[in-house]
Write a structure and sequence with these properties.
It is a single chain. The chain has 427 residues and is of the alpha/beta class. The protein has two domains: 3-80 and 368-425, Urease, subunit C, domain 1 (Roll); 82-364, Alpha-Beta Barrel (TIM Barrel), CATH 3.20.20. 32% of the residues lie in helices and 22% in strands. The protein has 14 helices and 16 strands. The chain has helices at residues 46-49, 107-119, 125-138, 157-168, 191-200, 217-230, 243-260, 279-292, 309-314, 338-348, 354-358, 361-364, 387-393, 410-414; strands spanning 3-11, 14-21, 26-35, 68-72, 77-80, 82-87, 141-149, 174-180, 204-208, 234-239, 266-270, 294-298, 319-321, 379-382, 397-402, 405-408. Strands 6-7-8-9-10-11-12-13 form an eight-stranded parallel beta sheet. The protein has a four-stranded mixed beta sheet with strand order 3-2-1-4, with no helix packed on it. It has a four-stranded antiparallel beta sheet with strand order 5-14-15-16. Helix 3 (125-138) packs across helix 4 (157-168). The longest helix is centred in the middle third of the chain and has 18 residues, at 243-260. The chain binds zinc ion. Residues 86, 88, 147, 238, 324 line the site of zinc ion.
């Protein structure tokens, strides 16, 4: 079909018919069909249950045009698709037999443990990358930044497979790649392999713990920025180094970002130290991050201090949320559901009023809450009264569209029709 007409989609307080152009992946038309305050007398979801779409029933009866698939969304709520800005496609054990983990001792011990576990897996990186991408799509994520391990021992073998998988999913999952020297940029003598990775197609220079792992804070950071200059790349640093050591590292990272003219293209992931120092100290650094346009990426950890996201937002710093570890040698937790992770963030910071709940969305999505004609048709439909309700309840995804194509959610799982062409039938 050339087009898909989604009838009765809730956007804000109104219902719309949305026309998707299946050729160019865009939202072609938004037609308001009136106000629709939810009926307070009805249990939430009662109208949606009646939606034929939930069972995948599609008809052309309301539009006499054979070019259209017509689907009744029955008042389901529109949400923009998610952007998961920290995910490791090459580390997880999804689809593998259960792997008991060992307690974290030190970073070098953990790195050796991970290497041994990953080396023993019978499946290819590409196969496991596909599993995780499919899981992310099923939850409504259509954009990711993935950190791919490189080191002198494995070379760029992981990266080569992730690059191949990126091509398979082009148009469905938008994938940014960070060359990630997990064993340490300087510690593991990884500069040569990092250059190889950047030449092969990675767009971001990664790094990890300039103090704790490389034990040369300034040299480690300067090397990252030298690489980023050589390859005109962004920079994304994994930083677990604590307290004032971490604070110094981020401050230097911000300085180097400004000097290199890389504002808007650099980020520090984790940055636990921002939740470990005093509020005035973290505020001062937040102001420096804002001025240098350095973003902070958090996985919303429950088991340790994390950056004061309220403070960062108040100071104007860009904050993004990422899954990070999902069932891997570092953690058995995580399910790739970024809407649920955004919900966890809102709950953790006590964001209970509407305005606070809504400020979660820019952290988990790269798109606006309300679409415009001409936007890319990448979004999800959920059974919720409004966006505040959706972030608070993280309901199941009824449908996930990426570039006009149905790629996840209950409709995808259960229905059969041209619009429901299954992902791997053509990728
Ligand atoms: Zn990570």
């Amino acid at each position: 079909m050339e087009k898909t007409l989604l009838k009765s989609v809730r956007i804000g307080d109104s219902l719309y018919d949305i026309t998707l152009n299946n050729q160019n992946g865009m939202i072609e038309r938004l037609t308001s069909i009136g106000g629709t305050a939810p009926d307070p007398g009805k249990p939430i979801g009662s109208t949606q249950k009646a939606g034929a779409s939930a069972n995948g029933s599609i008809s052309n009866s309301t539009v006499q045009d054979a070019r259209y698939d017509v689907i009744d969304a029955a008042g389901l709520l529109y949400l923009p698709s998610n952007a998961d800005m920290h995910v490791h496609l090459d580390k997880h054990f999804l689809g593998e037999p259960w792997k008991p983990l060992q307690p974290f001792v030190t970073l070098p011990v953990q790195l050796a443990f991970e290497k041994q576990m990953l080396g023993a897996l019978p499946t290819s990186i590409a196969e496991r990358a596909r599993r995780l991408i499919d899981l992310l799509l099923s939850h409504g994520t259509t954009k990711i930044r993935t950190h791919v391990d490189v080191d002198p021992e494995i070379g760029i073998s992981h990266l080569e497979q992730v690059l191949q998988v990126r091509e398979e999913y082009r148009g469905v999952m938008d994938i940014e790649i960070v060359a990630f020297p997990q064993q340490g940029l300087l510690r593991a003598d990884s500069i040569g392999v990092m250059k190889e990775a950047m030449r092969a197609g990675a767009e971001f220079v990664g790094g990890v713990d300039p103090a704790g792992l490389d034990r040369q804070v300034d040299r480690s950071l300067e090397t990252m920025f030298e690489l980023s200059a050589e390859f005109d790349a962004g920079v994304d640093l994994h930083l677990h180094d604590p307290g004032h050591l971490g604070l110094y590292t981020i401050s230097r990272f911000a300085d180097l970002t400004s000097v290199a003219g890389k504002g808007g293209r650099t980020a520090v992931s984790h940055a636990y130290c921002l939740g470990q120092v005093s509020e005035p100290e973290s505020r001062e650094l937040a102001q420096q991050l804002k001025a240098a346009e350095v973003a902070i990426i958090t996985s919303v950890p429950l088991d340790r201090p994390m950056p004061r996201v309220d403070q960062l937002i108040a100071e104007g710093v860009h904050v993004h949320v990422g899954s990070d570890n999902i069932l891997d040698s570092w953690s058995p937790f995580g399910n790739g559901d970024l809407l649920a992770r955004g919900s966890k963030l809102a709950e953790k910071f006590g964001w209970i009023v509407d305005e606070a709940l809504l400020q979660s969305y820019p952290l988990i999505s790269a798109a606006a809450l309300a679409p415009k004609e001409g936007d890319r048709a990448s979004f999800m439909l959920v059974n919720a009264q409004n966006a505040q309700h959706a972030i608070a309840s993280a309901p199941p995804r009824e449908a996930v569209f990426s570039g006009s194509r149905l790629v996840g959610g209950n409709w995808y799982t259960t229905a059969e029709s041209s619009v429901y062409t299954k992902l791997h039938s053509s990728v």
